[in-house]
Design brief:
The chain is mostly helical and 387 residues long. 69% of the residues lie in helices and 3% in strands.
């Protein structure tokens, strides 16, 4: 057998050494991730008026740990990841229940578990958890089986349970990302489009009920989205200031650390939810397009990895992770531009935060894991087998 044939056989068996797997990692993908994170650290430095504390230095340290997480996850045998996908999912479900029972309250929401060194936000982890669980479930499930409504009952339950728990916190933005990512995965798995249209019609019919269940501040956000000028000093203040900052940036921006809206404290939450607004004010439309281009490059890598994988689990995992990343930055950017109501979704690798950053690096590690193990032969077993 030739050297190439021998190597191909080893790749399919998945018995590569850690060193061989390290060479298989797409370091160009890691480079683009680092470029995006560099934007974020620079913006956090600017948000603190030219200081590494309290945001930029901790974010840099966390990103360094995140690179380690990415590499570590990339080297794990993908068959082990598939085997323990449900364990991860149900572990996060337990954390979500703990949050609802005795979680830390902040900003009027109960979303965190205080671990001392970090406030853990389980809803962020569920973005990866739901992708893992659905990829595991649909591994080896045929198109004929997917057409059976009883077969779809289980993935709908896997999605619906965390969606409700996250809404209770309340965290409408994260719940939306989880739901949209799951919808993309089920579509890619072969669920017919008419079933999504049926569920969509049922959702529209349930809008009056859903409206009555929203908290008052969530209703105000929707009303403010429709008419920001209705309460310019209250509910509409954030989005109006965001639009002013976006417009004042112009083509090339006011200059690094020269943004008036952000540095004069007109712009709220400039280190988290509205950091893209600060970036656009200081670096202008050109800087915003550069960042958007970096995200697009990462998306291209993600979907290319999904197309290259030879097993259903890897294809769905890579496509689900990439779609979830897309919804991350799309919702945040659309929110600060006033295209959708304000929701608490951070900008990937840019916004300050511990759990969100670690979860993104974990997801990037899963993408690299699929790439490293793209030719591994996987058992065609779906559902809840091998639990």
């Amino acid at each position: 057998m030739s050297d190439i044939g021998f190597l191909t056989a080893r790749l399919r068996r998945g018995d590569m050494s850690a060193t061989e797997k390290m060479w298989q990692i797409s370091w160009s993908f890691v480079f683009w991730i680092c470029c995006i994170a560099s934007f974020g650290i620079a913006m956090l430095y600017s948000a603190a008026h030219g200081s590494w504390t309290p945001w930029a230095l901790p974010q840099l340290a966390r990103f360094g740990v995140g690179i380690g997480i990415l590499v570590m996850i990339a080297l794990i045998d993908i068959r082990l990841i598939m085997r323990y996908a449900y364990v991860f999912y149900f572990g996060v479900m337990v954390l979500l229940v703990i949050v609802d029972v005795k979680g830390v309250i902040g900003g009027g929401a109960q979303r965190w578990i205080d671990l001392g060194f970090i406030n853990l936000q389980p809803s962020e982890l569920m973005k990866a958890g739901i992708v893992l669980a659905l990829a595991r479930y649909f591994q080896g499930v045929s198109l004929d089986d997917i057409g059976n409504p009883l077969v779809l009952a289980i993935p709908l339950a896997l999605v619906g349970a965390p969606f409700i728990l996250i809404l209770i916190q309340p965290d409408l933005g994260t719940a939306g990302v989880v739901m949209m990512g799951a919808t993309v995965m089920m579509f890619l798995a072969g669920v017919r489009i008419w079933k999504f249209l049926t569920l969509g019609a049922a959702g529209l019919a349930a809008i009056p009920i859903a409206w009555s269940m929203l908290h008052e501040y969530q209703q105000n956000r929707v009303l403010t989205f429709l008419n920001p000028e209705r309460d310019p000093l209250g509910a509409g203040y954030h989005i109006l200031q965001s639009k002013i900052a976006l417009g004042s940036g112009g083509l090339f921006g006011r200059g690094f650390m020269q943004g008036t809206q952000s540095h004069l404290n007109f712009l709220p939450e400039r280190q988290t939810d509205f950091i893209f607004t600060m970036l656009a004010e200081e670096l202008g439309m050109v800087g915003a397009l550069v960042l958007l281009s970096l995200y697009v490059i990462v998306m291209i890598y993600g979907f290319a990895i999904a197309f290259r994988a030879r097993h259903q689990f890897g294809r769905l995992l890579a496509a689900g992770i990439t779609s979830t990343m897309f919804f991350y930055f799309f919702i945040n950017m659309a929110m600060v531009m006033g295209l959708i109501p304000v929701v608490g979704v951070p900008l990937p690798l840019i916004s300050y935060g511990g759990t969100a950053l670690f979860n993104l690096m974990f997801c990037a590690g899963l993408l690299m894991n699929v790439w490293v193990h793209r030719d591994v032969q996987m058992a065609a077993r779906g559902g809840f087998s091998d639990l």
